[in-house]
Every structure is written in C-alpha cells, then in structure tokens.
Amino acid sequence: MTLTLIDRARRTDHVTDRGLIDKGTADAGAAPEKTPDAAPGSAPRRATGREADGLAVASFVLGLIGLLVFNLLLGPTAIVMALLALARRTRRPGRAYLGLALGVADLVVLAVLVTVNGTVAWDLAG
Asked: What is the pLDDT of residues 38-72, one digit of tens each?
C-alpha cells in the first residue's frame, strides 16, 4: 500500500473549452507571476491582506491592554492601527472595529482618571 501526499498549494486544475479538467502541478522553481500593472524590474507585490489582519489583531490587543496600563500611549496607537487596518481592507474588520472602540475607551478611561483623581495613574487604595 502506498500513501500519496498532495501539496494543494502547488496543484492547479484547469477547465478547458470542452469541459475537461487538466490536472497538473506548478513548477516548484517557477518565478511568481507578475501583475500586468507592475513596472518592469519591480519586486512582486506583498500580500497586504495579511499585514492588515495583523494590524487589526494588534490594535485589538493594544486597546485591551491599554484599558489597564499606559492609556495615554496604547489608546492612540490602537486607534491608528485600527484605522490603517480598515483602510487596507482587512479580512477581520470586526477586530479592527473592536480595536478602534477599545482605543477610544482607553482615552475615555484616561479622561475619567484625570478628572476624578487629577492624575493619569490608577489609585486603588482609595
């Protein structure tokens, strides 16, 4: 008995005009395909979707941490990262919106702390 492993990322299936499926594998040493609008001699474009997803997750995490510490620094950072992720059309817009909301909440908590205590630090002792 033989076990065959198929690398699905390298496998290509093409449908011809007659409806037949031509199955083959891509050449492992082939250069990445160039886009028609790419300038000659330019490097292939990076996937901005992954970067935008990373920005969305980072804004969510920074906004969440910012509720407890470093409101002044992490709140605006979370807001900027969330807006960048949304501008780059992330596949995780929910996380980007949560990061944006948590960044704004960080600034609201900071404003409340400054108004109540007159300081930017937590005072749990009373």
From this structure: 555 555 455 566 888 888 999 999 999 998 888 88
Mean pLDDT of the chain: 74
- Residue 105 neighbours by CB distance under 10 Å: 17
Q: Report the pLDDT value the prediction gives residue 103, as an integer from 0 to 100.
A: 95
Is the CB of residue 109 less than 8 Å from the CB of residue 67?
yes
Work out the end-to-end distance of the chain between its first and last CA atoms, rounded to an integer number of angstroms: 73
> Strand (E) positions, the chain?
11-15, 21-25
CA distances from 13 to 23, 26, 33, 38, 86 (A): 5, 10, 17, 26, 34
